[in-house]
Amino acid sequence: MEIQVDVRKAVWSRYWSHGIAHSCGGSYGNRYEGSLARFWRTVAGDLPAGARVLDIATGNGAVPQLLLEGADSPIACDAIDLAQPDPPWLAELPEHKRRQLRFHGQQVAEALPFPDTHFDLVTSQYGLEYTDLQRSLPEIRRVLRPGGKVRLITHHTDARPVRLARTELGHLDWMMAPGGLLELGQAMIAPMARAATEAGRAALMADAGANALRAHFNVLQGEATQLAAGSDCPDVLGDARVELGGILNLALAHGAAVAHEAFGRMRRDLDDSRVRLQELVDYALDDAGAQALAGALARGGKQQVEALFDDAVLMGWRIAANPV
Ligand SMILES: C[S@@+](CC[C@H](N)C(=O)[O-])C[C@H]1O[C@@H](n2cnc3c(N)ncnc32)[C@H](O)[C@@H]1O
Description:
The protein is α/β, with parallel strands linked by helices. It contains 13 helices and seven strands. The protein folds into two domains: about 5-160 and about 285-320, 3-Layer(aba) Sandwich (Rossmann fold); about 160-280, no CATH class. Strands 3-2-1-4-5-7-6 form a seven-stranded mixed β-sheet. S-adenosylmethionine binds near residues 63 and 110.
């Protein structure tokens, strides 16, 4: 099912507004490291002074950050994203570097706000494959100068981030199913609020419906623990369990209304995660897809597609295209 563009824009803008540096939270700390960082530093090292670079689907600018660090001389980097970036690292960037970078939020790759033949290099990491390639590739060709280059890292159908995303989507489906952990957690708010007083607790003891609900909720909490224990990415499940516990404590301490508000925020965060994870899985490229993308960019020029590993872990495709 295709997700509407305004939903995607809102979901990604919320994600970047949390000060997150990049979109591979499960694999790196607050910045890309290892072979991904090395790749971009090598690209940066080849840039001549004054080179004009465009980073597509930049998010919070992980690629521009590495390019600015790796370039030996000043460059001019424009960075666009469908969403509104909110890069936490920008304030710490020295002024002379900051002047080399311009973010353009709420700009899509399918209609680039730049003149023809403007850029020496177009980059994207886990980004270009999210766009409508029928429309974004002609735009890239338009803004790239003759002899300009394209360097990409894309999602790979068998890579770790995609594998983890599939598992996490399964966990979300399990939690969010009708009668699942989330629905029962929400239903538990009212009895927890009643349990704040002695009279309420006495009434609850005699309430068969409330007792059955609590027993069922506890069974699902136990199942969540088991699912998490058997998984190599238990974060979504574990975090949701802890957060639900906090929301029920909130109901006890401050009443149902406050707890329902917190539940609404949690629900929206989970819905957002589901959109981002589903996109990640849907837009990942297999070998044929990666070759086709490189071919469409190079149009007979030099092209290279390689699987990108970090410490023997598959992280994506590395694509180079020098269009003729
Ligand atoms: C997985 S994130 C990658 C962000 C960043 N490149 C990184 O490596 O951390 C994908 C980004 O693509 C952006 N995006 C999706 N469709 C887009 C489009 N059509 N034009 C521009 N950006 C788009 C999203 O808003 C999101 O910020």
